[in-house]
Design a protein that fits this description.
Length: 310
């Protein structure tokens, strides 16, 4: 994965150059059973009642650098919304990954899931964000954790996005996580069985509405098997009770977008970028960055459009 850099160095330089918002450390956000760190980005034009976006970094990445390079800070500046940047510690995971594959870390009210839920509550209070418009997006391990959070807290998150992630319930330990990263599965589960992995993670008796989900994956990914993306799409279209065939398939250059649900507001979308490796796609080219990949298309812009933020 990407090289580690000191927390916020690149991001603070970008902020200083733009004269935009402020990267802040939040030390007290309630219960933190996982021992995560909370950073947040507050744009200078913060709008009361604006949506809130939680951004989950990939393994070994600096959360603030990822926020800057992926374009989420720039989008926050344009729209006046705040960002929550949960940050993993090496004490929890030596590779700096969110522990999406450990049941005690993704279950509602436990571990990393509970720590991130506490960050959301504190950020919504501090920035007077709209509690009905909380979103989460993540890359790789962060993408798998984003999907797990949507399952555990469907009453908190309106929508999410998983970039190079894996389905909810795909693994239940380190060994099975490595297996599923190498080869999507396990085989043999029906769409309803995959959907049940999501339903069982939700509060007892919860029957909707379920969060909408944007999915992204590169066809040349050798870190997380690209077959995990259509499996995630299968899982969440089954949660939403949607047919197997996509409603619409559209090409944008080499990228392909498939959607399930109403044309104007689909519940699930899947973007496939055939020539992209493992990473977060951005539109820029030729700019050396540590946490994203030039792909001719901005995932941040498209995800924000899917969520209705822009």
């Amino acid at each position: 994965m990407a090289r580690r850099v000191s927390q916020g160095t690149v991001a603070r330089a970008a902020i200083a150059a733009s004269g935009a918002g402020e990267l802040i450390t939040v030390r007290d956000f309630g219960a933190d059973p996982a021992g995560l760190s909370m950073f947040a980005y507050r744009p200078s034009n913060l709008v009361s009642g604006a949506p809130l976006v939680v951004l989950l970094h990939g393994c070994g990445q600096d959360s603030a650098v990822f926020a800057a390079e992926s374009g989420w800070m720039a989008l926050a500046d344009r729209t006046g919304l705040a960002l929550v940047l949960p940050t993993q510690s090496p004490e929890n995971n030596r590779q700096g990954c969110f522990n999406w594959f450990r049941p005690a870390q993704v279950a509602r009210g436990l571990g990393e899931a509970q720590s991130i839920r506490g960050m959301v509550a504190e950020a919504a209070r501090r920035f007077t964000s709209d509690p009905r418009a909380v979103h989460v997006v993540g890359l790789s391990a962060g993408g798998a954790m984003a999907a797990a959070l949507l399952a555990a807290y469907p009453d908190v998150f309106a929508a999410g996005a998983s970039v190079a992630g894996l389905p909810v319930g795909a693994a239940s330990g380190a060994a099975s996580a490595l297996s599923r990263m190498a080869q999507a599965g396990p085989d043999g589960r029906s769409p309803e069985e995959w959907a049940d992995m999501v339903r069982r993670a939700a509060p007892v008796g919860y029957d909707g509405p379920w969060p909408r989900l944007s999915l992204w994956h590169g066809g040349l990914d050798t870190v997380v098997d690209p077959a995990n993306a259509p499996l995630l799409a299968l899982q969440w279209r089954a949660v939403h009770g949607l047919a197997g065939a996509p409603s619409v398939t559209t090409s944008y250059g080499s990228a392909r977008r498939e959607t399930w649900g109403p044309a104007g507001r689909p519940q699930v979308e899947l973007w496939t970028i055939p020539a992209m490796a493992h990473g977060y796609p951005i539109a820029a080219a030729g700019v050396p960055m540590s946490s994203v990949l030039p792909a001719g298309i901005s995932a941040t812009q498209r995800i924000a459009e899917f969520w209705g933020l822009v």
